[in-house]
Amino acid sequence: MRYLSTRGGAVVGNSLNADFTDILLGGLAADGGLAMPEHIPTVDSETLNGWRSLSYASLAFEVLQRFATDIPLHTLQSLIDRSYTAESFGSPAIAPLATLEPGLHLLKLSEGPTLAFKDMAMQLLGNLFEWVLAERGQVLNILGATSGDTGSAAEYAMRGKQGVRVVMLSPVGRMSPFQTAQMFSLLDDNIVNVAVDGVFDTCQDLVKAVSNDAPFKARWSIGTVNSINWARVVAQVVYYVHGWLRATDALDAPGPVSFAVPSGNFGNVLAGHLARRMGVPIARLVVATNENDVLDEFFRTGRYAPRSAVRTWQTSSPSMDISKASNFERFVFDLFEGDGAKVAELWQTLDKTGQFDLGGTAAFARAATEFGFVSGRSSHAERLATIRSAFTRYGVAVDPHTADGLNIAERWREAGVPMVVLETAQPAKFAQTMVEALGVEPARPTAHVGIENRAQRFVRMPADLTQLKALIVQRCG
Asked: What Rg do the C-alpha atoms of the chain give, in angstroms?
């Protein structure tokens, strides 16, 4: 499998295509776009149903081997087996499916080390990085941005890894106390936390600016673990296949399943789109946003207009406080059937005017008619009401982001079509909102008791590219 850029230019260096391991270590493509496979591999229904008896790790191997064709199969299997263990995820199921009521399910993706769905991809990414770097005799300085859970998942996956250093940017005061402590209390030598004045989009813009400086990126071996990293996206495809299998296990004639996905940077729901394109019978992909509803606006109208930092609201589902959805470019690339020149033109328009509008076009119509995308926006009041309702009706406590997904899922349920809501994180990470909704603080795993009281280490910085580059030179030299 070879990879190309969403903008039609060079992927790595001067190359118009690259292998999986080449793009694994990079961030943005050389032309500013994102890496996409030259084609999406497909599986037929017989193959898909034949995977029902597989463990999660074995299922991951079946999916990933179709994308990572330059990694020896025995090596890929070994890396996957080391990543998806009962010790790391709490049970052999890795991602158990909980039935809330007939036809409504919760796919539990927060059983990993940092209690968030980001562990599902990041645990594998850490092992992939370490193996590729050892094979090539290289080091990698990972530069990332987080609105909450990506940072801790990346740092826990990379801590102690040979040849890897992590510089993670996060917005000052925009994460929950638990999320902040989970990152800043890591004192490993290869972990550098940077608190940036601004919002998540500010941090993400800094990461992209560094990635766009090709000489600096090459000199300091800069890579990324943000959702623009293709390996993260494709690893998330696995749990959609797994979710479909588990939701249809008891059905005599397995049919389509819908998925509701809390959405910020669009990587999670993009993985569902890829699973659908591979042949997984998915009826609807429900994009659930919070008050930062840029994606909902697009799927309703065709207008994509990211907002400025001052118009990106701080909400009670903070990991979704994002207005510039990085992975959205990959989806638009698919809407235009791989026309990199058209994508480049749209992003030039976006840079100049702050928006583009596909409303009324055949490409936009494909989002719903061919790809099954629908959307909705959830408010703080609705979030709290959904948390209370889920606890009262099902005896299940869901975190605020999952509540957004569950709230919007109810609007799009269809008779006879199972709806699977993707869990985002465990409620313990958002105690303040959970107390507001339920009146009691959620229980937390023993390993995370008192995490807010641990010593913390971080660097505070204004949103200044020059200062960030100086820090990278200082800490990564």
From this structure: 21
Q: Which residues pair with 459 in a beta bridge?
A: 194
Q: Start-end ranges of CATH 3.40.50.1100 in the chain?
A: 95-113+230-438, 119-226+445-477
Neighbours of 32 (CB within 10 A): 18
Instruction: Give the tokens for residue 164.
Output: 């890897």
Q: Is the pLDDT score of 26 beyond 80?
A: no
Burial 342-367 (b: 16+ CB within 10 A, else e): bbbebbeebeeeeebbbeeeebbebb
pLDDT-above-90 percentage for the chain:
81
Q: What is the mean pLDDT of residues 120-126?
A: 94
Give the fold, CATH level 3, of 95-113+230-438. Rossmann fold (3.40.50)
Q: Cβ-count burial of 369 within 10 angstroms (0-12 exposed, 13-18 middle, 19+ buried)?
A: exposed
216: enclosing H helix or E strand: helix 214-219
* Tokens at 421, concatenated: 């809501």
Identify whether 118 is a catalytic site residue.
yes
SS (H, E, C) 131-145: HHHHHHCCCEEEEEE
Q: Are 398 and 390 in contact (CB under 8 A)?
A: yes
**Residue 95, pLDDT above cutoff 90:** yes
Q: What pLDDT score was predicted for residue 13?
A: 83
Q: How far is CA 34 from the centre of its chain?
A: 15
Q: Which of 118, 161, 208, 429 is catalytic?
A: 118
> What kind of fold does domain 119-226+445-477 have according to CATH?
Rossmann fold (3.40.50)
DSSP 192-213: EEEEESS-HHHHHHHHHHHHH-
